[in-house]
Amino acid sequence: MNFEGLDPALAEYVPSLHPALDPHLNPNLLQNVELDPEGVPLEGITVPESVHIMEGMYSELHTIVSEVGVPVSFSHFDLHEEMLWVGNHGGHATSFFGPALERYSSFQVHSSDDIRQIQSLENGVLFLTKNNLKYMSRGGLIIFDYLMDESEDMHSLLLTDPGTLLVGGLTSHVIEIDLNTVQETQKYSVEIPGVTIMRQSNRFFFCGHTSGKVSLRDLRTFAVEHEFDAYSGSLSDFDVHGNLLVTCGFSSRMNGLACDRFLKVYDLRMLRAITPLQVHIDPLFLKFIPTYTSRLAIISQTGQCQFCEPTGLANPADIFHVNTVGQLIMSFDVSSSKQAMVFGDSEGCVHLWADSPEITFNTYSRETDFALPCIVDTLPHLDWNQDLMPLSLIPVPLTTESLLSDWPAASSIPAPRRAPPVDPDILRTMKKVGFIGYAPNPRTKLRNQIPYRLKELDNEFDNFSQVPESPIGREEEPRIYMVAKKYRKVTIKYSKLGLEDFDFKHYNKTLFAGLEPHIPNAYCNCMIQVLYFLESVRCLVQNHLCQKEFCLSCELGFLFHMLDLSRGDPCQGSNFLRAFRTIPEAAALGLILADSDEATGKVNLGRLIQSWNRFILTQLHQETQEQEGPQAYRGIGSSNFGSSGDSVIGQLFSCEVENCSMCRCGKETVRVSSTLLFTLSYPENNDKIMDYEFAQILKRSICLEQNTQAWCENCEKYQPTVQTRNIRCLPDVLVINCEVNSSKEAEFWKVQAEYAFKKKILKKGCLEFPKSREIVVGEWNELGMAEGGHSYTSIEELKNIWIPYSIKMKLSKNKELEVYNWDESSELGMLEDQESTYVYDLMATVVHILDSRTGGSLVGHIKVGETYHQRKECEAVQFDMTWKVPAILYYVRRNLHSKYNLHIKNPIEASVLLAEASLARKQRKCHATFIPLMLSEMPQAGDLVGLDAEFVTLNEEEAELRSDGTKSTIKPSQMSVARITCVRGQGPNEGVPFIDDYISTQEQVVDYLTQYSGIKPGDLDAKISSKHLTTLKSTYLKLRFLIDVGVKFVGHGLQKDFRVINIMVPRDQVIDTVYLFHMPRKRMISLRFLAWYFLDLKIQGETHDSIEDARTALQLYRKYTELSTGGLEPEEFRKVLKGLYEKGRKMDWKVPEPDGQSSPKSAAVFSSVLSL
């Protein structure tokens, strides 16, 4: 606020200038109020009950002293809580809670300077003094303290968005500050003498100058768009609402300043002045109070308040007076709900005006946290008459004898406490509708009190039909759980480090790598593992390489390579799933899920994984079909699936089938096609389900016969047709979709398991059953408990099993198919005609776990041999249809691998490192940032390569706040690689980058993280980018070639880089500087601080540059080798690290800002780089 031209005593506060409050001036108001020796009330002045507050008219509601004798400099209604903030000329801030103005907190913001503006945020409050911006909690704790230059004279601040702040004052510039990093990001020039008031609308920034002008500035560039010359003297205040701008100020008269009683009104649509508004007081403050109309509140320094319309006439009858007892008004504010106004005077009093007796400062305020009451040493009084008082509050005396409560638990029974009587007020005010009574809450109980309930009643009314949206609600409860523990879905609990500190080894102690489940559409992880352990498929996709950008075979090969290199460490299929999401057929089949569908159980995972199984086999078959000439891009439609089986996938899975359609007119049509899998077809469910062997159902499903309506060319119309299917050959891998999608199919499996159990028990001769009747459905549940000399475990291993471990299939000379359940005791009967007889062994089963707590999951049983987590073989074929439902079965022909070439030849050649064209159209106009490798520079094993990568965010982190105030991460943010840089680590061109690829992306980017990555919007768009843009697959092949050659990567924080790139690098090929200069149980040190401490380099000034970071990491490694192997003993090197940590603690791990002169080492230090 500009006070130029006013009373000089107000420009610089002198405590003895203003007299103390005189109680004789208004004896009726100060009656029965206790005064201190100077005559100032010690408590708040309450409005007498006789004063009636009229609804809709503002009247004084409460008056309280903030600090005796110290003028109020600024007042502000909190925008998030029911609080009022007051700052004074002594640098002290005080907050008051609610309309009663109960003192909430009080603390010193600055030792001497006055508080010039206050702005409330969600987590704290901003205070602006002359050259200091302080962010403090509502209780007074400092969150950050931003010091400006001593020559600064700041007066106003403006919050443009939740993370950005503008600060202006009597200077030649306005500063933009990032509240997240507490750094100055921009500095905008303004005309002298500066900006003292700032406002914002959806079109402009409005800046009020002490010269009497108001400038309208662009929201993006802060450039002046228009300017109003309001007053010849000075500007005191202005406000903006809708299309109107209203100002008040001072005019130059008789070599001095006089308060102008004309309010200048401007139309922002036409950007010109309209009819000014004449008022009857000397205006110093004004604010719009838009409720039913756009009223203006105009305040004079003497305490007069006038309300009027900005486009109407001011009525003298609308003038009210603030009872300041002769003091001057120093501050004014209106609450966001427009129900309250506050005035601060020069004596330190705060006057609250309201339009009704019951008001709220905000329309929606959150609950305010209050300090806990002081804990006293004396024990509280226990009221024995309270029915809900816990007996544990009574301390137990020390005694050597047994107590009455020590009797055995078997002699005790639960005795629930009787419910307390209903409150008489509820019975008195209760109204009845039928047999239901309702009454208003008398509010005689404390908050958060609930009636006493039995745990048994709570369990009885539990609702498990829906999956909680939050993982907090998915915790296991201490009750009988239907799903076996080893099949329950593990909910990953993320910390602030994400997945880095999650112990996957606790769940997997084998050397087989698992796949992380938190990625979108990771429901297919179990099927990826099944395909991985099919050695023929694994070798096929790892030998495959094509130029198609999104090729599932290539991405599956890259993923299988990672699983080969991993020694039990978890891998993630993010690149494979990224390519999977781009396939239009996958989206058309509904295979791509939204993030919420899989987590909340809105999708049938069993049906979904069967559709995915059919899709992936078809896709791999099309992508790996052999063609003449070099491999090139091949669209999905270019292959003629069904007529060609020349791919390895076709040889493994394809089965040639003959479909015959017979019309009732006698017309027969035969069509030959191929299929990669079979779907089980079940018999019609009659009154009683008959006993079937699995082989019978399988044969019925392969040689399918069904009646349907089909077009008959002979009859020239649709006719009832009998369609039959017969196979001409047998596949090497028999894939079966179980198609258990309803309770009817589940009941069929359950009954067949009961029949199979009965026959196995009879075969063992353990139990005798009456031959006059069959076992009733459900009777097998009691057989495991029967006493007959057999062990309970052996009985359990026979339950819920219907499918065999092996199947024998024979195709006769007349193409008749025979299918039998097979076991080892039947092996002698198979010797005849072995060429046409196949024996299939069960290789994998995929089951759907029905779990209402987590939405269900998919689990795969894979036969891999002896492992640490050895499971019983029967678990793979036992299906409890209430929670464990079969989805997919894989049977593999015996001696399968003998007929396929299982040798893996790395298809990635050195040519991937040579120069390539950029996808960006404008890249040729810009200077190249790297020099590709020449043939003579091809890396060898052991060569050093500096690497750094930058990322962008695709999905923000999902988190929620628990009831205790702690933050719980539901899902970490999803990152995508945006730039990968590799620099030469030795030779004459050491430090020169040979890879600097920007990765083109088709997915929506939520945050480019420009401050940390240097990536700007448009850099990854091929249409407008000026960078060397390429595909992720192209850059991935370059890194894979370097890894396969055996180079050693040097970088800082490479673990995260490789994780986001989705590539596995052997540990002996990684040199991470974050661990080279790290002491056990200490914090990790940033690259910027290490470069400053060891190399005297200042890097990462405004943004990060991957070339600079990669070179710096190489230099740090050179420094490390110099310190560790250059003569320093281990103890001396440890002292160097201790000195590093001590220096970091002293400087708060921050690099000092440059003093204006660039450091001689701020540029590249490699001499070879200077030639660029």
TrEMBL record:
<dbReference type="GO" id="GO:0010606">
    <property type="term" value="P:positive regulation of cytoplasmic mRNA processing body assembly"/>
</dbReference>
<dbReference type="Pfam" id="PF00929">
    <property type="entry name" value="RNase_T"/>
</dbReference>
<dbReference type="InterPro" id="IPR028889">
    <property type="entry name" value="USP"/>
</dbReference>
<keyword id="KW-0853">WD repeat</keyword>
<dbReference type="InterPro" id="IPR015943">
    <property type="entry name" value="WD40/YVTN_repeat-like_dom_sf"/>
</dbReference>
<dbReference type="InterPro" id="IPR028881">
    <property type="entry name" value="PAN2_UCH_dom"/>
</dbReference>
<dbReference type="InterPro" id="IPR050785">
    <property type="entry name" value="PAN2-PAN3_catalytic_subunit"/>
</dbReference>
<keyword id="KW-0677">Repeat</keyword>
<dbReference type="InterPro" id="IPR036397">
    <property type="entry name" value="RNaseH_sf"/>
</dbReference>
<protein>
    <recommendedName>
        <fullName>PAN2-PAN3 deadenylation complex catalytic subunit PAN2</fullName>
        <ecNumber>3.1.13.4</ecNumber>
    </recommendedName>
</protein>
<keyword id="KW-0378">Hydrolase</keyword>
<dbReference type="InterPro" id="IPR030843">
    <property type="entry name" value="PAN2"/>
</dbReference>
<feature type="binding site">
    <location>
        <position position="948"/>
    </location>
    <ligand>
        <name>a divalent metal cation</name>
    </ligand>
</feature>
<comment type="similarity">
    <text>Belongs to the peptidase C19 family. PAN2 subfamily.</text>
</comment>
<dbReference type="Pfam" id="PF20770">
    <property type="entry name" value="PAN2_N"/>
</dbReference>
<dbReference type="Pfam" id="PF13423">
    <property type="entry name" value="UCH_1"/>
</dbReference>
<dbReference type="GO" id="GO:0003676">
    <property type="term" value="F:nucleic acid binding"/>
</dbReference>
<dbReference type="GO" id="GO:0004535">
    <property type="term" value="F:poly(A)-specific ribonuclease activity"/>
</dbReference>
<dbReference type="InterPro" id="IPR013520">
    <property type="entry name" value="Ribonucl_H"/>
</dbReference>
<dbReference type="InterPro" id="IPR038765">
    <property type="entry name" value="Papain-like_cys_pep_sf"/>
</dbReference>
<keyword id="KW-0539">Nucleus</keyword>
<dbReference type="GO" id="GO:0046872">
    <property type="term" value="F:metal ion binding"/>
</dbReference>
<dbReference type="InterPro" id="IPR036322">
    <property type="entry name" value="WD40_repeat_dom_sf"/>
</dbReference>
<keyword id="KW-0540">Nuclease</keyword>
<feature type="binding site">
    <location>
        <position position="950"/>
    </location>
    <ligand>
        <name>a divalent metal cation</name>
    </ligand>
</feature>
<feature type="binding site">
    <location>
        <position position="1109"/>
    </location>
    <ligand>
        <name>a divalent metal cation</name>
    </ligand>
</feature>
<dbReference type="GO" id="GO:0006397">
    <property type="term" value="P:mRNA processing"/>
</dbReference>
<dbReference type="InterPro" id="IPR012337">
    <property type="entry name" value="RNaseH-like_sf"/>
</dbReference>
<dbReference type="GO" id="GO:0000289">
    <property type="term" value="P:nuclear-transcribed mRNA poly(A) tail shortening"/>
</dbReference>
<keyword id="KW-0507">mRNA processing</keyword>
<keyword id="KW-0269">Exonuclease</keyword>
<keyword id="KW-0479">Metal-binding</keyword>
<dbReference type="GO" id="GO:0000932">
    <property type="term" value="C:P-body"/>
</dbReference>
<comment type="function">
    <text>Catalytic subunit of the poly(A)-nuclease (PAN) deadenylation complex, one of two cytoplasmic mRNA deadenylases involved in general and miRNA-mediated mRNA turnover. PAN specifically shortens poly(A) tails of RNA and the activity is stimulated by poly(A)-binding protein (PABP). PAN deadenylation is followed by rapid degradation of the shortened mRNA tails by the CCR4-NOT complex.</text>
</comment>
<feature type="domain" description="USP">
    <location>
        <begin position="513"/>
        <end position="894"/>
    </location>
</feature>
<keyword id="KW-0963">Cytoplasm</keyword>
<dbReference type="GO" id="GO:0005634">
    <property type="term" value="C:nucleus"/>
</dbReference>
<dbReference type="InterPro" id="IPR048841">
    <property type="entry name" value="PAN2_N"/>
</dbReference>
<feature type="binding site">
    <location>
        <position position="1057"/>
    </location>
    <ligand>
        <name>a divalent metal cation</name>
    </ligand>
</feature>
<comment type="subunit">
    <text>Forms a heterotrimer with an asymmetric homodimer of the regulatory subunit PAN3 to form the poly(A)-nuclease (PAN) deadenylation complex. Interacts with PAN3 isoform 1/Pan3L and isoform 3/Pan3S. Interacts with ZFP36.</text>
</comment>
<dbReference type="GO" id="GO:0031251">
    <property type="term" value="C:PAN complex"/>
</dbReference>
